[in-house]
Amino acid sequence: MVRTNIRILLVGDDSARRSRSDNTSGVVKRKPRMENREQLDVEIRRADVICIVYGIDAPDSFERIQLFWLPYIRKLGRNVPIVLVGNKIDLRGNNITNTDLETKVMPIMNEFKEVETCIECSVKQGLNCSEVFYFAQKAVSHPTAPLYDSREHTMKQACVDALIRIFKLCDKDKDSILNDEEINEFQTKCFGSPLQRQELESIKEVVKENEADGVNEKGLTQRGFLYLHNLFIQKGRLETTWTVLRRFGYGDDLSLREDFLWPSFECPVDCSVELSSDGYQFFTELFQSHDLDKDGALKESELEELFSTAPCNPWLQIGFPQTTITNNKGSVTLQGFIAQWSMTTLLDYKTTLAYLAYLGYNDQNQTSALKITRQRRLDRKRGKIQRNVFLCYCFGGTGSGKSSLLKGFVEKTFDEKYTPTSKPYSVVNSVEIGGAEKYLVMQEFGPRYDTEVLQNKKKMESCDVICFLYDSGDVNSFAYVANLKKKYLDDFPNLPIVFVASKSDCDLVQQRYDSQPDEFCREIGISVPISVSIKEKINLDIFNLLVGVAIEP
């Protein structure tokens, strides 16, 4: 954000006569005396920008800038912009040009990158005094150093990267060109109004004359966009580039600001967060704009381009796209993409907030893409839950088929090979209930973590329905989930429970437990277990049943 109060420090040898001040609003000016070294050090450490004043009639005061003042400020560990101010131009006359001044100052600017600029004035005649403080403020609010390498005369890589990201976000049709409509949308976002036709053509002409690949018949290329900002900086119009960067969320260090990535948004206890209609629309349009081959799915290269304006794909560490719906080539479909964001928002809405910013959600802030649901206990008390995204925990013993159940839910090929669950695994898909689309997130943790989850009150209060899964062909399988129910679920009497008997395509066996599964369920007042087979695709409407139970416990 642009600073509203800037602390300007004036230092220099006594011969420079820094006595006159300027009444510029929002500026705090300090002029400690050299003989009071302790006060000088304090003020240097507090300053936002330092003006080193030298006397044009005193060559020694200019030499001491490089020999004393700049090394002294560096020694104190200050990395703030510095403006060189030549006083008493009234004593010299007009016998020096800007080129002469540049030749004189450039060696200092090359050695000390913190030096932003040099300006000459006359305190006695009141000449350029206001300009001194203007440039000092500008050095803080629109600094050169983060954007431009004065020695190499090129934009710094961090600036280039930020501008490339902005270009990509403004390229709505993803053709690597900013057409007139996209340019004016960018112009309005950053500066409040579109360009006139003549202004737009004039800009294109400037780019065309100086950057061969900067413009084509469709519009402005990425190279042309970068050229324009390089030109703005070289001509001293840093405020133009800084306005663009800040409008797209960048701070003074050219990283996206925390308040931009995570605007104020709190989820009350016992509530959950879902995408709003605006959020669903944004992610739908984002998918469609990156589906370049229009096959209804995003392949790896299209996903890479989609997330090129973000630090990375947020789901790389959780097995995506195997966590949602894909086509037969393994490319995520629109249904799967929207479902994945629904899951992310439910489990970690702060990640969704940040990625809305990374991916270019075009609103004042991205909280309008989210909505907070009503408290679960109120919904359960009324016997009707109105949310659209539901969380199901799946518990079961080793080999009971939890992973197969979850993979079957997202239509992955059944695998005969057993692989034990070593870490939490989540999947998501949509189901249709009463003609309305709902999303079900299913999570398994593995026997190693089951008790830890069941003892975590906060985690259990986030759950909408429990699926206790047992292998109908394993005599010891039911005992595991029955004991979990008896030991841990009494504290959550309103949490819906469904028992599921897996591998119904195999021979059914008697369970080694005090009561058989059907009898056990009747004793605790719930429906008898549902028999399913992922391998043979038997009773796969179990997922609709889980959501139905969550909606009407």
TrEMBL record:
| Domain EF-hand stretches | 278-313
State the SMART domains in the record. Answer: RAB, RHO
Residues covered by the Miro domain: 1-142, 387-552
Keywords noted in UniProt: Calcium, GTP-binding, Hydrolase, Membrane, Metal-binding, Mitochondrion, Mitochondrion outer membrane, Nucleotide-binding, Repeat, Transmembrane, Transmembrane helix
Look up and give the membrane topology term: Single-pass type IV membrane protein
Location relative to the cell: Mitochondrion outer membrane
List the GO terms this entry assigns under cellular component, sorted alphabetically.
mitochondrial outer membrane
Q: Which GO terms describe its biological process?
A: mitochondrion organization
- Name a Pfam family for this protein: EF_assoc_2
Q: Does the keyword Ion transport apply?
A: no
Q: Which InterPro entries match?
A: EF-hand-dom_pair (IPR011992), EF_hand_assoc_1 (IPR013566), EF_hand_assoc_2 (IPR013567), EF_hand_dom (IPR002048), Miro (IPR021181), Miro-EF-hand_domain (IPR052266), MIRO_dom (IPR020860), P-loop_NTPase (IPR027417)
Q: Give the Gene Ontology MF terms in alphabetical order.
A: calcium ion binding; GTP binding; GTPase activity
Q: Which family does it belong to?
A: Belongs to the mitochondrial Rho GTPase family.
| Cross-referenced PANTHER family | EF-HAND CALCIUM-BINDING DOMAIN-CONTAINING PROTEIN 7
Functionally, this protein is described as follows: Mitochondrial GTPase involved in mitochondrial trafficking. Probably involved in control of anterograde transport of mitochondria and their subcellular distribution.
Q: What protein name does the entry list?
A: Mitochondrial Rho GTPase 1
Starting at the broadest rank, the lineage of the source organism is: Eukaryota, Fungi, Fungi incertae sedis, Chytridiomycota, Chytridiomycota incertae sedis
Underlying gene: GEM1
